[in-house]
Every structure is written in structure tokens, then in C-alpha cells.
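Please predict the structure of the following assembly.
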Amino acid sequence: MDAVVDSHRITLAVHEALEEHGHSRGELIPVLKAVGEALGYLPTLAMVEVARAMQIAPGQVFSVATFYTLIPTEPRGRHVIQFCESAPCHVQGGRLVWETLRAELGISPGETTPDGRWTLLTTSCIGQCDRGPVMMVDDDLHGDLTPDGVGEILERYE
Amino acid sequence: MTVIRSMVLVSDDPLSRERNAGAVQERFAEEIRRRGLEGEIAVHTISGIRCKTVSPLAIVYPEAAVYGPMRVEDVPLVVEEHLVRRRPVPALMPPPHKFSGRLAWLPRRKGTLPAEQRVVLQRVGVIDPESLDDYLAHEGYEALRRVLGTSTPADVIDMVYKSGLQGRGGAGFPTGLKWRFVAGAKSKKKYVVCNADESEPGTFKDRTILEGDPHSIVEAMTIAAFAVGADEGYIYVRGEYRLAQARLRKAIRQARQAGFLGENILDSGFSFDIHVHSGAGAYICGEETALLESLEGKRGEPRFRPPYPTTCGLWCKPTLVNNVETLANVPAITRNGWQWYRMFGTPGSPGTKVYTILGNVKRRGVIEVPLGITLREVIAIYGGGMEDGTRLKLAQTGGSSGSVVPASLQDTPMDFNSYKQAGVSLGSGALLICNEDTCVIDLARVLMNFFRVESCGKCTPCRVGTRRAHAILTRISRGQGTMSDLDELETIAEALATLSNCGLGTSASVPLRDILRHYRAEVEAHLRLKVCPAGVCAMEGSRD
Ligand SMILES: Cc1cc2nc3c(=O)[nH]c(=O)nc-3n(C[C@H](O)[C@H](O)[C@H](O)COP(=O)(O)O)c2cc1C
């Protein structure tokens, strides 16, 4: 998988994250998050480099990284959809929207479309429940979703 | 159908009557009729609130504006300005402290209406959250100034203790007591941590506070640090809350520059500083010991207790962990005194509570009301009633760690004690209002899915129990359940409740227990008759 990002970029991203947050053990999570954001995900090689620089066992870095959803350890599509599957959105009409969305994309949660355009994820709650059902597409929030409106939203992303 | 857009309530008690309340009410009705507004504005009486200095009162909803003492000749002005032009008339309003708290007493009686009372959300939407000047112009940092100028740490703790403030993060632990524990712990180094990881489904009250009034949290944490003897603080903000993080960082910079934070604050010799820490996406990190683990750069797995964070918290130093909303009460309490605070809410649960109203109501959003208001009132007044033509079936409180509150409890005062007595819990302040189109199996399945996904996996009862319960509920929703599933669900609920290491597992048992207790017939219909009475579950496998 690591072929997606070349090792030079990884080294650079790790270096920059350490510059910003420092080398202390308490900064491990912010560092991993920053590297993940810079590269789109956190490749194994990046974890190894962080472990070496911070003098932590690589296994420990891996175990921390995989605990948090905001630190992806797999490459993702060009656009990431996070659909809220919590009870308020569900009760407010989310069930039908979800079915439409899945049919539209043709993939299951956790998967990426073959053309690399979409990764579909579910999320527990994004704290925007008064506008539910909601989903995030990359950093954009889309609220008050309806089954009919989903297709139009997807079209806006290349 | 005409919709009542406003309602006027005129106080009706011996004192008010003596002071001509009847004529005031008649005049309201007359003025409203004269303008042809009787279909839009209702006039009623309200009993049980009286106040020597301000009766008779007229309360105008939905703004909950209180006018008093009302004279007959004031009525046309209120009708013309407030009800027609929608401009409240402050000149005719008494200062809030004259009647606050009394309104909180109303909920026990049906048909009466408590006002929205803003303590925590006082400045939200009123000030520019990125302007220190605006905060200062609205009593900002007055509490800190007073505390550092005239109080001892013991005074501050005493004040918070006497106010009766209880933690708003879900557990309702007495805040003053927790402060006392941390203050009493012997250590040179102590921390104050603000829990802003808010991830309970349906809850976004903390975000509202952080985005709308970030300085109030900076001020509150500084007061708390002075009280318990800490010199360093962390705000652990949920990773997705980027705007809240940006505003907090800005507020902290402004506060440092102005001398409200940092070395030798306001020349008092007291020093304290705050870091903002962004979460990385894990619901469990809202649990305080998991949060501390995460702050230390580890997997956010809850610790075994004891020791408690008050003695061994961050880096095993005594640590005060408080929720955002809890802290947001602190400056107002220290400014106005504990007696003032106790005028809101009920004797057992003083103060206000911020709720998010969601689900099948006409209006969704955030409200702050005195503790002790009832669900019926929340729905009718603030939710604008149920969605067209539907009826309340249940409310799910407090995100996923709350309870399933059946409609039969809608007149129970919502405060920590009354709810506990009724066997339900207030949780974190989300009110998911569900109508009769809701199926309890479907709802429980969605809730259980949440726990299954968010279980950190450290302890077995939770890891296995949530998965198992979710599988059973899914099977039932497909029409493939059997009666023995009931026993198994009960066994799982019991194991989750008693054997889990932290509150996540305990909470996961609640929806199971609640639906079996209150909706057993509906559950059994899925099993015995292979029918979903609400028509939600597909039951597609029942013919296999
Ligand atoms: C699973 C779980 C999740 C929690 N999530 C939060 C949360 O998001 N925010 C919060 O303030 N407290 C949360 N709590 C409660 C905290 O553990 C802790 O009681 C609280 O921060 C204490 O602050 P308070 O006394 O001011 O309420 C959670 C507890 C559990 C068991």
C-alpha cells in the first residue's frame, strides 16, 4: 500500500509534524494526525519513522494510530463521505437517505469506489443533529438530507 | 389549522387578583381581538407564581418575556410593541432576579409554563465570540477579577459547593465536592481539564457554548485552577469541532495579552495557562480517564479506578475534570453568589440545563431551561409541538447513554433526582423526541450499533455484549427472532450493567433494559407474531 506515497514525502511530512509539535510522548497523537492530514492517510513507513524519532516502539505507535478514526491508516478516495448513523439522524429520516446513498455509490461502508473517487464511511455523530440527517463530504457539512437530494450533492464533487 | 404563534399568561393568585390581574387579562384579550389576532395569540392565566414586588405578571411566549407589575394601561403598549411589532419592551420588565427561580417551580402543574432561563447561554448569540471587548462589556472576567482580588480558594470552593452545581457531563456529580477533593490532594503540580469531547449522539450543547462564548470557559477554568491550586490546564476538544478549537485558541491568546491568563494574572501572584488539545476521533475519550490517557498520547482506554483522577489524573497528578457546561456556570455563580443560583431549578437540582431538542418535533434546537421542567412542556413550548398529527411515543434522553423515557413519564420533572426516582436518567442533555412511527427494536438496534462501534474493546463484557446484542436485535428486526432472545438480551443487559469497566458498557445496557421494561408487548410482537407494530422493521426473513 505504501507505494501510494513516496518515501521522500513521508520523511518530509514526519519532519514537519515533529517540528510543529515536538518530540515528547504526549504529542504522539497530534503528530500522527498531522502526518495523516498531510499525506491523506498514515502509511506504515510514517509510523516507523515517527516511532524512531520519538523513541517509542513501532507497535505502540501502530496501536495508538489504529485507535482513532481521525487517523486513517489506509489510503482513501479523492473524496471521503462520512454519513451519520446515530439515532437522531436515523429518526429524522436518515434510514432512507442511507439506502439511497449506498445504491448511488454501489459500495459498502469502509470501501472505496474502483475509480478512486469516493470512500464511504459511517460516523457516530458529528454534533449537527438539529440539521439531521447529515453527512460530511470532505470538510463540507450537508444537512437536512433527503433521498432525492443526495445525487445532486455528489455531483458537486469531481 | 391556525397556529398559535404567541401566548400571553397572566398571573392568577390572590395577590395578583387583588392587584387587578383579571382586568389586565381582559384587556389583553380585548386588544388582541381588536387587532384580529385572536387566532394567532392565546391568552391564559397562570397560577403559582407570585412575587410581592412584581405581581401581577404577564409572561409572553415564545420569548418568555416577563412583564410586571402589569397595569391595565400598560397592556396596549405590550400588545402593540411586543406582539404586533415583535419588539419586547424592557422598560416594563422587572429585573430577572425578582422572579427567577419562581418560574422554575411551575413545571409540577400541567398547563403552566416555565421560562427559558439563560445562565450558561447568556451571551451566546449576543456577543461577538471573537471579541474580548465584547466579552468584557458583558460582565466578562468580572468574576475572575473579584475572585483574585477578594477571595481565598476555600471561599470559591465553598461558594460552588453551596450553589449545588452538579456535573453536566452526564453523571451529575456535585461540582463543589470534586473541587474540594482536588484542592485537598497534596501535590505541587495539579491540572484542570475541561472535557469538551462531546460526542454523545444528539448532543451539541457544548459546541454551542464553545463557539458562542469561548472566553467564559477560559475564565471558568482560571477560577477553578485558583480554587484547586493548579497552574496548567487542558481543553480536550473533539477533533471534528474545528471552529470551536479556533475560537478557543484565539480567546486564549487574547486573554494572555490582556493579563487574564499566564504569569501573575491581574497582578495577583497567581499563574495559570491553558492548552487546547484536539481529539482524534474516539467517542470513549469523553470518559474522563480515557481522556487523560489520550492526553498522554496513548490509546484512549479507560483506566481502572481507584485511584480517581482527583488524586492521580494527568501524568498521575491530581486533576480536576469538568464538562464544558458545568464550567460555564462557574463565572455566573461567583459573580452573583450561590443564593442567586439556587433560585433556578429545584432544591435538589439547582440551576439550569441546556438541552438539544431533536426528532419528530416541529422545531429543533438548543434551549436552556431551569432543571425541573417537564418533557411535555419542552415539546409543547420549545419544540413547537409534535410533527403534524403525530403523538409522542417516547423520548430518548442524553444521547446514547440516556434512557428511553416512555410518554407516561412526560409530566415527571426533569431534574437529576426526580428522574433517578423514576428509574430513568437525564444523561447529557439530548432529547430525541420520537413519535408513534418509531419502532423500539429499530431504535435499540441503532443505539446498540453505536455502542458496538465505539466500545474500545478493553473489557470483555462490553466488547462481546454489545456485538451480541446488536446481532440479536438485527435478527429480530428481520423477523428471525425467537422467544429465547428475550432471555439472552436480559442476560447481556445484566452483564453489561454489572461487569463493564466503564460507563460505556453500563450505558449500553440501558436501552435494552428500558425497551424490555416499557415495551415488552411490542418486542414480543416481533418474536411471536413476526410483526413490527410500527411498520418499520422489514421482517424480510420471517418466511425463510
Ligand atoms: C462512555 C462515556 C462517555 C462520556 N463522554 C463525555 C463527554 O463527551 N463529555 C463530558 O463532559 N463527559 C463525558 N463523560 C463523563 C465524564 O467521564 C466525566 O464524568 C465528566 O467529564 C465529569 O465532568 P462533570 O462533573 O463536570 O460532569 C462520559 C462518560 C462515559 C462513561
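Chain B touches chain A through 49 residues (CB under 8 Å). Residues 440-543 of chain B form a domain with the de novo design (two linked rop proteins) fold (CATH 1.20.1440.230).
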